[in-house]
Write a structure and sequence with these properties.
It is a single chain. By secondary structure, the chain is an alpha/beta fold. It has a single domain (2-98), classed as Metalloproteases ("zincins"), catalytic domain (Collagenase (Catalytic Domain), 3-Layer(aba) Sandwich). The chain contains 3 helices and 4 strands; from the N terminus they run βαβαββα. The chain has a 4-stranded mixed sheet with strand order 1-2-4-3. It starts with a strand and ends in a 12-residue tail after the last helix. The model has no long low-confidence stretch (mean pLDDT 87).
Length: 110
């Protein structure tokens, strides 16, 4: 599978997964669905997560993951753009701890 991933680590949380981790997870998730894909993943802190959730969903709190589908009219761009994912690292870490689960499939990361 051909994957173009724009990874933006905008969180001051501890150790975060790197480009290779996110690419592996994306390839695994998309391997049976697509031959090529482009997407952006942005890992944020609670302030940015809350602002985005408030502005786009009308909910004034940080949530674990927000997804934004690329809504490009046909014929404008001929690329396999999926959209954007925003992951709020502190919320993911807190929820994992509350559920006594690792923050990733391979163990705690932040």
């Amino acid at each position: 599978m051909k994957l173009e991933l724009d990874l933006q680590l905008a969180s001051s949380a501890g150790a975060l997964p790197g480009q290779a981790d996110f690419e592996r997870w994306c390839r695994t998730a998309l391997s049976t669905r697509r031959d090529t894909a482009e997407l952006t993943i942005r890992v944020v802190d609670e302030d940015e997560g809350r602002e985005l959730n408030r502005d786009w969903r009308g909910k004034d709190y940080a949530t674990n993951v927000l997804s934004f589908v690329a809504d490009i009219p046909p014929g404008i761009l001929d690329i396999p753009l999926l959209g954007d994912l925003v992951i709020c690292a502190p919320v993911v870490a807190r929820e994992a701890a509350e559920q006594a689960r690792p923050a990733t499939p391979t163990g705690p990361i932040w």
